[in-house]
């Protein structure tokens, strides 16, 4: 399988994505969706169950739409465009504030390429739909790739992949971001000389009690654990948990019981289970996400079903979703590895009723919707797909408070 660095992809994403979209979905669609403005579309008849607002973002040039809004029909699985927003270079990861009015996006860029990494705050209105940029802050490093709100929704965490650091920002009363309250820098390397030449913080996850911030560092094969002061927005390092050499931890997902942590390891395509207690981790199990003999791939996102009964992880390259049952002791059993519906599933989202999975397929420039089914099949065939250039992140919006 060809190997592409993050920098290689960022340099060509905008142009390549535009060409593929124009060829796949038609020139008229591309011309109508590349402008740097909000693009409302007519509303569709109300289905039997109220639709949900979902945002999709991707790698895009600053003058191209990089954040898209859709109404998701929770009965049929279809997605109806509501609008889009341009003005942010490579908004590859987003989070939505629980008040249902604010959204935050990284600008995954690098100082070495002349554009330091950034994090942006936006507000949105639902009727009529509109997105508005509130402000932007420097991310404190290169290639910011992940965002996380704390449990109070007063602090935003950013992971900087390129320079191996994490930053914390206060959220102001109007939703904008205040100046950075803290910044932590990792150091070291791992055994994979091409991917672990230095630290690469890939995500920040808060513990269920909001007392600790766990930073998955792909370059160090570590989950670095920080005590979090939610009054001051400060981090103090407590220790680290180490994965297998060369594993490359990427994303983390806590079980609803708060006692089990599941980790997607990008470089060796494994999912690891840790027991969690008061800022400490103990490894218990690690399983492959690929079938025997499968070619090289790269594990990406990971999520737990709302029921707490299954773990899902996405395989880029193999273009599949690994599905595991969770036992009463937290241990995993592989159920199946079904197709993801497209190419390079960088990110995905599960519906709250465990009926659908929405997949951001980056290289096929689309979001695919697949039904979750009972039994060994686990996931059915694609029921809907919509074009999104360089699709890389999916987030459901909360209802208005």
Structural notes for this entry:
By secondary structure, this protein is mainly beta. The chain has a domain at 145-396: 7 Propeller (Methylamine Dehydrogenase, Chain H). The protein is 7% helix and 46% strand. Helix 1 packs across helix 2 (27-33). Mean pLDDT is 91; it is low at 20-47.
How would you summarize this macromolecular structure in one to three sentences?
With 401 residues, the chain is mostly beta strands.
Shape: globular
**Separation of termini?**
47 Å
Relative strand content: over 45%
- Which CATH architecture of one domain is right? 7 Propeller
The CATH superfamily of one domain bears the name: YVTN repeat-like/Quinoprotein amine dehydrogenase
What characterizes the major β-sheet?
4 strands, antiparallel
**H/E element string?**
HHEEEEEEEEEEEEEEEEEEEEEEEEEEEE
Mean pLDDT: 91
Helix count from the secondary structure assignment:
2
CATH level 3 topology of one domain: Methylamine Dehydrogenase, Chain H
Number of strands: 28
Rg, nearest Å: 20 Å
What top-tier CATH class of one domain fits best?
Mainly Beta
Low-confidence residue ranges: 20-47
What class do helices, strands and sheet pairing give?
mainly beta
- As laid out across the biggest beta sheet, the strand order is 3-2-1-28
- Percent helix: under 10%
């Amino acid at each position: 399988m060809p190997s592409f660095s993050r920098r290689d992809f960022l340099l060509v994403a905008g142009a390549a994505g535009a060409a593929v979209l124009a060829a796949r979905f038609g020139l008229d669609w591309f011309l109508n969706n590349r402008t740097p403005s909000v693009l409302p579309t007519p509303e569709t008849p109300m289905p039997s169950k109220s639709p949900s607002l979902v945002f999709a973002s991707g790698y895009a040039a600053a003058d191209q739409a990089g954040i898209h809004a859709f109404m998701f029909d929770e009965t049929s699985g279809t997605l109806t465009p509501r609008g889009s927003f341009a003005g942010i270079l490579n908004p590859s990861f987003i989070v939505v504030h629980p008040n249902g009015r604010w959204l935050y996006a990284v600008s995954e860029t690098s100082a070495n390429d002349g554009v330091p990494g950034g994090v942006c705050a936006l507000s949105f209105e639902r009727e009529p739909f509109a997105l508005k940029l509130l402000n932007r802050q420097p991310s404190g490093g290169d290639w910011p790739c992940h965002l996380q709100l704390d449990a109070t929704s007063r602090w935003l965490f950013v992971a900087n992949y390129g320079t191996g650091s994490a930053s914390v920002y206060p959220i102001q009363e109007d939703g904008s971001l205040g100046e950075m309250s803290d910044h932590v820098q990792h150091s070291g390397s791992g055994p994979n000389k091409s991917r672990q030449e230095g630290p690469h913080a890939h995500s920040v996850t808060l513990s269920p009690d909001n007392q600790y911030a766990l930073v998955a560092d792909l370059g160090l094969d570590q989950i670095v654990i920080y005590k979090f002061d939610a009054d001051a927005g400060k981090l103090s390092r407590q220790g680290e948990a180490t994965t297998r050499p060369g594993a490359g931890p990427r994303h983390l997902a806590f079980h609803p019981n708060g006692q089990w942590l599941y980790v997607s390891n990008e470089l060796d395509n494994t999912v690891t289970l840790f027991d969690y207690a008061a800022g400490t981790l103990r490894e218990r199990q690690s399983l492959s996400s690929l079938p025997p003999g499968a070619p090289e791939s790269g594990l990406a996102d990971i999520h737990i079903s709302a029921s707490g009964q299954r773990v899902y992880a996405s395989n880029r390259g193999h273009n599949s979703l690994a599905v595991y049952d969770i036992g009463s002791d937290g241990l995993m059993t592989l159920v199946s590895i079904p197709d993801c519906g497209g190419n390079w599933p960088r990110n995905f989202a599960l519906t709250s009723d465990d009926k659908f999975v929405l997949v951001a397929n980056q290289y096929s420039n689309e979001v695919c919707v697949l039904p979750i089914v009972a039994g060994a099949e686990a996931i059915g065939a694609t029921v809907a797909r919509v074009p999104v250039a360089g699709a890389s992140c999916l987030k459901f919006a909360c209802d208005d408070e």
